[in-house]
């Protein structure tokens, strides 16, 4: 349902040009939960943000259900983006709006009438099981509740694809498990395809069907976790992460272990 073809994105800083995403191609099937893991600075978030063109690639194509988003005009792109929801590490809720008004926001922008907005907001809140927080302001919510409201806001436009940028990095282990279960439920019950960027093995290992390991702007290796026997990890880092035991739960830490053993 999603094909990235030869995505290139570079940034120019004081020390010159950096190819942060360097000719990446990948394919996400309908109904997949697809993980992208990598060390800090590997280019994961930038790659994720090219999918909905929050970050426009310098070159390459982003095909969503047979349409190349990079070729669309402003109006068509706005409509196509309605099929893609997104959640972030730090939730990005609007502090001076209630939960109800936060979830309403994307529908207001899309010009959805008030009565339909109400139905869809309540439907979204029911999915994340937080109907009792409808009139509360974000400051009164726990981190896990904030992320659930952010999920409800992402779902209210009824997307086909949900992008998750480090969705549990700001949460404790119990809340992480709860959010991952919500994401898995959403994938199974609402048939929403999910792409998750993370540096935690627990996240990708527990719910992803496929995982790409990103290193310095390129996809080093892709593993099909559903077909583990046919696809054993090849690189040292992938072996450490995927055949780990408890000690290599976090990608930067796993690289540290490799360096220490050099
Ligand atoms: N808008 C920007 N302008 C300049 N440099 C940027 C910009 N966005 C990202 N970068 C740089 O690109 C590199 C990759 O960043 P990115 O956030 O994609 O990595 P990441 O793998 O998601 O890392 P992290 O897990 O630390 O967020 C970093 O060196 C970052 O400083």
From TrEMBL:
Transmembrane regions listed in the UniProt entry: none
Gene3D superfamilies in the cross-refs: P-loop containing nucleotide triphosphate hydrolases (3.40.50.300)
SUPFAM superfamilies linked to this entry: P-loop containing nucleoside triphosphate hydrolases
All copies of domain ABC transporter, residue ranges: 2-241
GO CC terms of this entry: plasma membrane
GO MF annotation list: ATP binding; ATP hydrolysis activity
Gene Ontology annotations of biological process type: amino acid transport
Keyword Translocase: yes
PROSITE patterns: ABC_TRANSPORTER_1, ABC_TRANSPORTER_2
Keywords: Amino-acid transport, ATP-binding, Cell membrane, Membrane, Nucleotide-binding, Translocase, Transport
Family: Belongs to the ABC transporter superfamily.
UniProt-recorded name of the protein: ABC transporter domain-containing protein
Taxonomic source organism: Paenibacillus oryzae
């Amino acid at each position: 349902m999603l094909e990235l073809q030869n995505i290139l994105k570079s940034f120019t800083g004081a020390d010159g040009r950096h190819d942060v995403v360097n000719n990446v191609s990948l394919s996400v099937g309908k109904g997949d939960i697809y993980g992208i893991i990598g060390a800090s600075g590997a280019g994961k978030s930038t790659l994720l943000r090219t999918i909905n063109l929050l970050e426009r690639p310098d070159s390459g194509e982003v095909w969503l259900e047979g349409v190349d988003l990079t070729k669309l005009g402003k109006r068509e792109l706005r409509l196509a983006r309605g099929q893609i929801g997104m959640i972030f590490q730090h939730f990005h809720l609007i502090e001076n709006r209630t939960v109800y008004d936060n979830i309403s926001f994307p529908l207001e922008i899309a010009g959805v009438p008030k009565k339909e907005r109400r139905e869809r907001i309540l439907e979204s809140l029911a999915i994340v099981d937080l109907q009792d927080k409808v009139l509360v302001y974000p400051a009164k919510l726990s981190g896990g509740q904030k992320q659930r409201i952010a999920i409800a806001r992402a779902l209210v436009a009824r997307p086909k694809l949900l992008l998750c940028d480090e969705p549990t990095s700001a949460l404790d282990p119990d809340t992480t498990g709860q959010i991952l279960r919500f994401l898995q439920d959403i994938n199974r019950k609402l048939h929403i395809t999910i792409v998750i960027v993370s540096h935690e093995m627990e996240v990708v290992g527990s719910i992803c069907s496929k995982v790409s390991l990103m290193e310095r702007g390129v996809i080093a290796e892709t593993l099909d976790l559903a077909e583990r026997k046919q696809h054993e990890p090849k690189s040292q880092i992938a072996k450490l992460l995927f055949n780990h035991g408890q000690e290599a739960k976090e990608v930067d830490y796993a690289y540290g272990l490799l360096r220490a053993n050099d």
